[in-house]
Structures
1.
Amino acid sequence: MNLQEYFRRIGFHGSYDKPDLLTLREIHKQHILSIPFENFSIHCGERNHMELEAVFNKLVRCKRGGWCYENNFLFSWVLKELGYEYTLLSSKVFNNSIDDFALMDTHLIMKVVIDEEPFICDVSYGMMSQVWYPLELISGKDQTQPAGVFRLMDKGEFWVLERDRRQPRFLNPDLQTPSLVDKKDIVPVYCFTLTPRNGDHFLKFNEKLQVDANSLYTKMSMCSLQTPTGFRALLGQIYSEVTFIPEEGVNVLDSRILLDHELLQILREKFNVQLRGPFTPKGAKSSKKYF
């Protein structure tokens, strides 16, 4: 493993001679534009591991994506190699079905301190709530990013990441994907504490979410990649291209159901993902196996 391989993977060509905010912002952005959030290993007979060498091989050398335990764990290694002061943090993702935060630490994020100022980094939430740049750890401050206006709120015992709702505009009104539509004016994303964690803390959650029948990740295959103008998403067999129009407070959604023969082609051309084993998409309009 080496940084040059990683930098080639994300298309980073800048200077990295000192661990400053400018460098962190650029690497953070390039990561989310290059390495997808995806859970395909669960649906093609593989396993998601948290051994660093396995994660590096999958995301960098095999040009796959991964979920937060992989993407953010890899990014923490990058921070270490570049000399940043950082800690791993655990968070609980907001669950719309119960209108509350999850009970488990279902998400891994990082706190980075630069010149005594703390920031939150997260390169693997995906879709509408993916931050492009580190967030200042300041309570109540509006922080405008391409995906919207984000805020970190200090609730005393924990912090909450939230963002402002954007109105969806559907180019295909007959195909509205609930996962891509905000249900609240203020969208809670996840809550977290500042308790430092190590990688071992997440091992049991990494395993459980791959096998639990109630886990979102076993119920649906998904892939999301940010683009310079928005993001792409594949949920089951529904492919969406989303364009941000921040000046109007709107996200434009262009969605369609992929035909059987299009699925693997879309993964290669739109997400730069090439699966090596048989893949069974799961979720909306999904029932067949592809090779």
2.
Amino acid sequence: MNVDKLAKLQAQVRIGGKGTPRRKVKKVIKASNSGDDRKLSAALTKLGVQPIGGVDEVNMFRDDGKVIHFASPKVQSAANANTFAIHGRASERELAELVPNILNQLDPSALANLRKLAEAYQAQHGNAAAAEGQEDEDIPDLVENFDSVQVEDKESA
């Protein structure tokens, strides 16, 4: 190709004006879960779920000793299909974090896991207490009663 022909072709290029093609706009598609939510709600309405009120928390106990905890969930149930739907923000926690509040919710197998957890906790703190006992050997025991010395000082003054 010759330089003169190339310059002529470049001069013919128009940006804008009559007869130029429109630029196509690329639409950005946002990925959302709204389609999944609609499908889920449609499936639940087919089952005939009813809302259950007054549920403060839901705890699901896993085999590995962790608990899936829902604080203030929205719970729906379909008794004829033996189905429960739980909506809300879930957090995965250790069983030890929730122990005092969930003792009445535990079944016998979970109580066995709780015993194992307690034994592991005692063994861990037992080792720490033994190490702490060695540190206490350096500190001398208190021989005098300082309260009686203060009383004597006040009486003499």
3.
Amino acid sequence: MKSIVIFIFSSLLLVSFSSIVNGDWLNAHATFYDDGTMGGACGYGNVYRQGYGTNNVALSSALFNDGLSCGACFQIVCVNDRQWCLPGSIVVTATNFCPPNPALPSEKGGWCNPPLRHFDLSQPAFLRIAQYKAGIVPVAYRRVPCVRRGGIRFQMNGHPYFNLVLITNVGGAGDVHAVAIKGSRTGWQQMKQNWGQNWQSDTYLIGQSLSFKVTTSDGRTVVSNDVVPANWSFGQTFSGSQFP
């Protein structure tokens, strides 16, 4: 009798997850990598220091969008694998890129080859939804709002005629798709995406207070006026407004 109850419960779980996937959720697969704390194609560097912790993920080409998906948040559940799936879900931030491996077939090691939707999770995140020995599991995922503490952060890098601003800790949609900058002696100027979430301006802005307009993938914009004081220097980070 006990085994029958367990079977019925497992079947109900599969039906429930199936209905979720057929709604706002999409199918993908997930693996894990050992070190999710440093570097990455989004430019965040040490993700612990940036506040993302171990709840981070590298995206395949189909999801990465040339770095414009960096900062987006995904809710992920393990589905359709009674042997390896664990109950519950995780919410992770996109902080890295999972590159394709054309030397391997997509179904045997080339997990991040186009057009596959694939999540390469940090190991701690993976172990919250699946067992270690699974290696790779089927998942369902959906975009969810990012909840952040404090304001959007602007890290000033580069040199006087090459301003490279790393933008982190973005709430709401999380993924920045456009940035404008204004000095106290200039008008608004659109910045160019350099790589990941590093945005570039070639205007000489030394000695000016700086304002930013940040627009995310949902079309919403938040303005941080005079968030950077006139005496700023390269290497400094400043906190601005945040999406409600």
